[in-house]
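Box 3.1 A note on notation
Throughout this textbook, protein chains are presented in two layers. The first layer is the amino acid sequence; the second is a token string describing backbone geometry. Keep the layers aligned when reading.
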Amino acid sequence: MNHPPLVSIIMPAYNAADYIETTLNTVFQQTFENWELLVIDDCSTDNTLDILKKYKECDPRVNIIKLTKNMGAPAGPRNIGILQAQAKWIAFLDADDLWHPEKLNRQLAVLNQTGAKFCSTKMIDFSGDEKPKLRDASENQIKWISFLQQLIKFRTPTSSVIADKALLLDHRFNESIEYKAREDLDCWLHCHEELGKSVKVMSPMMGYRIIKGQISGKKWAMFKRHLHVLQNYRFISGLLMPYPKALLFTCTHFVLAFYYRFAKGGL
């Protein structure tokens, strides 16, 4: 009798043929092996689907969900993946990011030790075909991230997150196009407001690939979207965040993001 996986890895993919094989290989290199991979293909027009089929033929842990209509952003595919996931824990990985081989193993150990329901790790940036220098994950330093800290500075890179499925079912990604590239900010804030805090592994166990022309590189557009998310953030109490606070936290995020991303090359 087959046992269900402990971790469901959710990967949205749209025209990701240039990088997805490298990303998939970092999943197969994980020292923790009790996982399933749900790749949600958002109507790719390149050969992304052909690549995915080759991996599925080699490993039954790979599941392909092919959408019939392009959703225009990763929020929708992620929500579909959450609904179809079999595991207690959900891990997210974008189709162009990379993982350290010990990432899942290390995070699951921390979740077990702390009783937390949400865990992230540090990350480092890399460009093009260069290989990120991810340090040995044997370092055991952790840090607790509060709701207020998340407001001041976004601290939980999406491809580093593992969270309890029940938590994510209560806090879906906002699929509005106005939330594109900031749907994770909104979702993680709601998770942190409910939990109070999350745990973060202070070793860089994921690499974030910087691709020329992607929306995350357009700072003014990202500033406006960040502000939009915070302006429309509804607290558990039912109240909306006041505009002065939304503007303040948007400014603090981008000032600190500039320091960490450009001075230190990571988060």
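The chain has a mean pLDDT of 93. Residues 232 and 240 are 6 Å apart (CA to CA).
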